[in-house]
Amino acid sequence: MKAFAKPVETLIRRLTRLPGIGEKSATRLTLHMLRASREEMEALAGAILDVKQRIRACSQCFNFAEDELCPICKDPARRTGLLCVVEDPGDLMAIEGSQGFQGLFHVLHGVLSPLDGVGPEELRMAELVERIRKGGFQEVVVATNPSVEGEATSLYIAQVLRPFGVRVTRIAYGLPVGGDLQYADRLTLGKALENRREV
Fold first, then answer.
1. How many other β-carbons are positioned within 10 Å of the β-carbon of residue 181?
2. Torsion-angle region of residue 129: left (phi > 0), alpha (psi -120 to 50) or beta?
3. Mean pLDDT of all residues in the chain?
4. Mean pLDDT (whole number) for 28-40
5. Is CATH 1.10.8.420 the classification given to domain 6-54?
6. Which of 25, 30, 110, 186 is the 20 to 30 A CA-CA neighbour of 133?
């Protein structure tokens, strides 16, 4: 016996297709939507359609943009000699949220993963090389995730950019602020020691 009417079940099923949304979360969201006003739900539906219709890739860094260039690429206050390479726009948003980076970005839209058929051609790698070839960058910070694919991608980027004489660095990773040494796993602790700096 079904607990909900068909349209409710359809919405729950659709919501479970979103990343990080399981059946319980989808049910909770659906019930919230049913209790919300029609105006509120029309505004939500309009915002979703608006994003799909108006947002595209920035022609320079491939971040999300409403115009030809995203707000970061348009910002004259950014450090134009510093470029941070990230896997996807979510990583860019996380780095921007830290307020610790004032340079420009380049979004790859993935990482190298030969087992999944993802090579340099499937990423925005050629565009990255072209940006560096044009000159103006003194340093490229590779901020891919500390996974096997992220590490392979960072090594590949360092290799292809070496001929241009640009400094290629990798973000450090290790212990989180406020973390306890005794609870850190061996790999994290090892990376924290490897990436130590002078005080």
1. 9
2. alpha
3. 91
4. 96
5. yes
6. 110
> Which token pair is 113?
């993963």
Task: List pLDDT tens digits, range 74-129.
Answer: 999 999 999 999 999 999 999 999 888 999 999 999 999 988 999 999 999 999 99
Q: Is 109 left (phi over 0), alpha (psi -120 to 50) or beta?
A: left
Is a pLDDT exceeding 90 seen at residue 198?
Answer: no
User: Tokens 């470029």 label which residue?
Assistant: 83
Of the candidate CATH numbers 3.40.50.970, 3.40.1360.10, 3.40.720.10, 2.60.120.260, the domain formed by 77-170 belongs to 3.40.1360.10
Torsion over CA: 32, 33, 34, 39 (sign): positive
pTM for this prediction: 0.83
| pLDDT for residue 1 | 34
